[in-house]
Amino acid sequence: MTHPDSDGLQGLHGFHEICDFDVPVDRHGTWCTQWDYVEDRFGAAGLLPFTISDMDFETAPEVLAALRGRLEHGVLGYSRWRHEDFLSAVRHWYATRYDTPVEQDRIAYAPAVLYQVGRILDLWSSPGDGVVVHTPAYDAFPRLLAARDRDMRGVPLHDWDALERELARPDTTVLLLCSPHNPTGHVWSGAELERTAELCERHGVAVISDEIHSDLAHTPHRPWALHGRPGSRWAIVTSASKSFNIPALTGSYGIFGDAESCERYLTLLKDADGLSSPAVLSIAGHIAAYREGGPWLDALNAYVADNLRMVGDRLAEAFPELDWHPPRAGYLAWIDLRPLGVPDEVLQRELIHTEKVAIMPGTAYGPEGAGFVRLNVGCPRSKAEAGVEALIRALRTTSGAASSAVPGVASPSATGRAAAGN
């Protein structure tokens, strides 16, 4: 896939004025995982959350209009996804956004990306087989693999020797790729993915590529895919849910490298699991997003990039030794705090009990994440600022650094923290 060039961003500032991402939306009382259930993970209620990877923004107006229009019809009976409206919208998105052709008979609906990962693993591997995953790893991957009795074989990001060693093992059958990578936000280059594909082909390993974050790549980084490699087994699993902030609708889709695997997967979907009827609002939302939502997504990505630059500026001012740079994709700031030497549990106690914020510890993504945090800045600027300020204060306290106020950062106060939690 190629990234849309800069010409596609013309008129962006005017569109941003229409989509005012600065306006907070109160998500309390909506059964919201990030806000209403923060206590489940962090053991305390009322925290300002920067946690699960969804955003605090309304979805695109075009998507909302499509959902309202479908609901106004009033009848919500069984539906289908294998029709021209949905399939052509997916093909249109890849053709216009990424200059990538997609064969219509290789597209398959799924209720969720992780459902599809699991079912494709059932097609291409057996219990006890090895599945290679880059580490630190998206925290759902280890659980999914363990539940299916697959042996997760972690490979440090960018360690090509380790990758080939694990792929070469005779019982390794699948590489489970996260592209762009969660939690680090790394976007693999075309050359890197070509090298990965060659290694997988050499050792007879299939590739499942979770590309749910690909629409959120930041210019000039380009998300590439494993399209167009004849004879190889690969599948892309993705959704508009991350980029358009519609995970509550459920729904995703896959693109298969060969028609036979696609049809075998559909047999599992429809016959084994009885899932032939999709969530109709998800279908309506995807069609609207992919047909009309491009300008909104461009504005969103520009806003998130500014949030990430703000985080970088604040951290550089407070702790220049961190030398942190924004991720290549997404709204998740993966921050290496190891130079400060603060134990993870000490920092988390300070964040939760003093600063009243919930920020994901890097250890949630495996032992390789020790010393890191993952800060979600898919939110209005004011909230993102509150999060990085709380992190800086907590680090100053726990690292034994000077307790003087950080330039440009408000001093901690009970009033300020309470206001931030509203």
In short:
By secondary structure, the chain is α/β, with parallel strands linked by helices.
Structural commentary:
The longest helix is centred in the C-terminal third of the chain and has 25 residues, at 294-318. The chain contains 15 helices and eleven strands. The protein has 422 residues and is of the alpha/beta class. Strands 2-8-7-6-5-3-4 form a seven-stranded mixed β-sheet, with helices on both faces. A four-stranded mixed β-sheet has the order 1-10-11-9. 46% of the residues are buried. It has two domains: 6-58 and 295-420, Aspartate Aminotransferase, domain 1, CATH 3.90.1150; 61-292, Type I PLP-dependent aspartate aminotransferase-like (Major domain) (Aspartate Aminotransferase, domain 2). The protein starts with 11 loop residues before the first helix and ends with a helix. It has helices spanning 12-18, 33-36, 38-42, 61-73, 84-98, 113-124, 140-147, 160-168, 190-202, 259-272, 280-292, 294-318, 344-354, 381-399, 414-420; strands at 48-50, 107-110, 130-135, 151-156, 172-178, 206-210, 234-238, 252-256, 332-336, 357-361, 372-376.
Give the topology:
Blueprint: H1 12-18, H2 33-36, H3 38-42, E1 48-50, H4 61-73, H5 84-98, E2 107-110, H6 113-124, E3 130-135, H7 140-147, E4 151-156, H8 160-168, E5 172-178, H9 190-202, E6 206-210, E7 234-238, E8 252-256, H10 259-272, H11 280-292, H12 294-318, E9 332-336, H13 344-354, E10 357-361, E11 372-376, H14 381-399, H15 414-420
Parallel strand pairs: 1-10, 3-4, 3-5, 5-6, 6-7
Antiparallel strand pairs: 2-8, 7-8, 9-11, 10-11
Helix pairs in contact: 1-12, 4-11, 5-11, 12-14, 13-14
